[in-house]
Specification:
Blueprint (H helix, E strand, L loop, with lengths): L12 H7 L26 E4 L5 H14 L3 E4 L9 H7 L2 H4 L1 E4 L3
Parallel strand pairs: 1-2, 2-3
Helix pairs in contact: 2-3
Length: 105
């Protein structure tokens, strides 16, 4: 992949610390749009999470869903923000491979 397609910037340490949620960083930060995914109407197996606040449980459920062949995950109100640091780390990238839909009933 040619990396010259992506702009790179050097920033002051104070700004980097504000952008990063990690206390001890490796000095690299990426900002990018997430690909759009949709849940097909004919999806055969869905997981719905309602009010799940614990990132560790969220990560385990997402990894298990991916391994079990779940087609998509429906995130109902009160469910942990899937793109913050801890859920991202605990999801082991499952949140980027599964179709996710945030909605309310």
């Amino acid at each position: 992949m040619p990396f010259d397609r992506f702009p790179c910037y050097a920033v002051e340490a104070s700004l980097f610390d504000k952008l990063s949620e990690t206390e001890q960083t490796q000095g690299i930060l990426a900002v990018f749009p997430l690909p759009e995914r949709t849940l097909a109407l004919q999806a055969s197996l869905l997981l719905a999470l309602d009010g799940l606040r614990d990132p560790a449980t969220w990560g385990r459920l997402l990894r298990t869903a991916g391994a079990a062949g779940v087609d998509g995950v429906i995130l109902l109100p009160g469910t942990v923000d899937l793109l913050t640091r801890r859920p991202c780390a605990l999801g082991w990238d499952a949140q980027f491979r599964l179709a996710l839909l945030t909605t309310s009933l």
